[in-house]
Amino acid sequence: MPINEQISLVCQRLLNDSRFAEGLHMVGLSQGGLFVRGLAQRCPFKRVGAVVSIGGPQKGIYGFPRCPEQSVPFSCSFLRAILNYIAYADNVQSRLVQAQYWHDPTREELYKEKSWFLSDINQEKIVNKTYRENLELVDALVLVKFQNDTIVVPRESTWFGFYKENSTNDLYDLQESLLYKEDLLGLKNLDSSGRLHLLETPGEHLHFSLEWFKENIVIPFLK
């Protein structure tokens, strides 16, 4: 099921569930962290507490997870080229969830036009005022990056960083992005009001303990 349909379905179920009538927190792991942010932008909740993305690729991915480039020369580049070739075809976008947040920095215009999900929620197709208004209502937006992440490529995507246009090496960070500078999603507003929290932890993708989760997520944001 395409991500857009998943979010629409979850939104309706939550809105119709009386247990969430007064609001809710949302926590997403890996791609789920991207999905809960999209849900917060699109769904007209009465109140949203914390939106927590743990290792979520907020600006998409452009790489093959755990690809051993150093041991198999050109393998990662070759696999990425294959994914590039098929990712933006409609029949792939409709069937492969990962293709819907595949972000090719060397073909930005094609990505913006053909991405079914990511370019829309990141305000790269058209600017949707409702997306910004809804996200600015959250009590906290928490983005967790893993220092040794080899699943989210580049790992800076978990904090809204990404490759610069036409580069697969040079990176920009959140504050350098158009999304932040023009405050298209309200991230700058959340930051200035102390509601944007960028957390970093050692280790590989989603390698964290329950104790870390309790101390860094539950106690500060979910109580």
From TrEMBL:
InterPro entries listed in its UniProt record: AB_hydrolase_fold (IPR029058), Palm_thioest (IPR002472)
Gene3D superfamilies: alpha/beta hydrolase (3.40.50.1820)
Enzyme class: hydrolase
Keywords, alphabetical: Disulfide bond, Glycoprotein, Hydrolase, Signal
EC number: 3.1.2.22
GO cellular component terms listed in the entry, alphabetical order: lysosome
Entry similarity comment: Belongs to the palmitoyl-protein thioesterase family.
Name of protein: Palmitoyl-protein thioesterase 1
Species of provenance: Fasciolopsis buskii
Organism phylogeny: Eukaryota, Metazoa, Spiralia, Lophotrochozoa, Platyhelminthes
